Amino acid sequence: MNRVPSVVLILVLLAGLTACQRSPHQDPWRDGPSVLSQSSLTQDTRYQCAEQRVETRLGEHRMQLRLPERDLVLDAVVSASGARYEDADGNGFWSKGPSEALLRLQGGAWVNCEVTEARSPWVAARDRGVVYRAVGQEPGWVVEVWPGEAPAIILVMDYGQRRLEIPRARRLEGDAGYAGEAGDVAVSLHILREACTDVMSGEVFPTRAELRLDGSVYRGCGHELSP
């Protein structure tokens, strides 16, 4: 009896089984969020954590924590209850049930979080490609800066009643902000890299923003955003 075909068949079957196994190099989380595969993620969950709104995405043994200014990748750790994720920089997220969680940033205190339907406007801006966003109060205004050497800038003033667009802005000396024209309106946005507290929400931001147009100065707070 010729036994060669049987041996060949066994080798083919073993090769097929090996190919079906998941290679560690195919793990979309292994090299961080830059190689994240959307097919490996569950649906986003949104949380309100004190003044800050965040979003989470779960992968295999890891979580993508979407903060206003950037994304973090946290590893699953052993927990007596719930699902807990942390990184080496003292950031952590601890899911305590279907609607409650705890958030810790840079080794600080744990903050209570509750599930919310509302998206973080900062994360949404990052998803649109915005690289800097600032907000101010009384009257409410928002400014968003797009990437590029001569970036487009969108301003929404007076609680959404007025919209201005600068198609090509100039960078101020020393990377201190931007200036340009929205039609016949001269606009400048000055960015001071110092802590700023929003007067309405109490949220603390890493930059202070001064928006100047129509002879007036509007003050607010902002984030430099990472994609």
Task: Describe this protein's structure.
The chain has 2 helices and 19 strands. It has helices at residues 4-20, 121-128, and strands at residues 45-49, 52-58, 62-66, 71-77, 83-86, 92-95, 100-104, 111-115, 132-136, 141-145, 153-157, 162-166, 170-171, 177-182, 185-192, 196-197, 204-205, 207-213, 216-224. Strands 12-11-10-9-19-18-15-14-13 form a 9-stranded antiparallel β-sheet, with no helix packed on it. Strands 1-2-3-4-5-6-7-8 form an 8-stranded antiparallel beta barrel. It has a two-stranded antiparallel ribbon with strand order 16-17. A hairpin with a 2-residue loop joins strand 1 (45-49) and strand 2. The longest helix has 17 residues, at 4-20. Keywords: Lipoprotein, Membrane, Palmitate, Signal. InterPro entries: MliC, MliC_sf. It comes from Thioalkalivibrio sulfidiphilus (strain HL-EbGR7).
Q: Brief overview, please?
A:
The protein contains two helices and 19 strands.
- Helical coverage, percent range: 10-25%
Distance between the termini: 65 Å
Number of strands: 19
What form results from the Cα inertia axes? elongated
Radius of gyration: 24 Å
- The CATH architecture designation of the largest domain is Beta Barrel
Question: What structural class do you assign from the helix and strand content?
Answer: mainly beta
Just give the CATH class of the largest domain. Mainly Beta
InterPro entries: MliC, MliC_sf
Keywords: Lipoprotein, Membrane, Palmitate, Signal
Protein name: C-type lysozyme inhibitor domain-containing protein
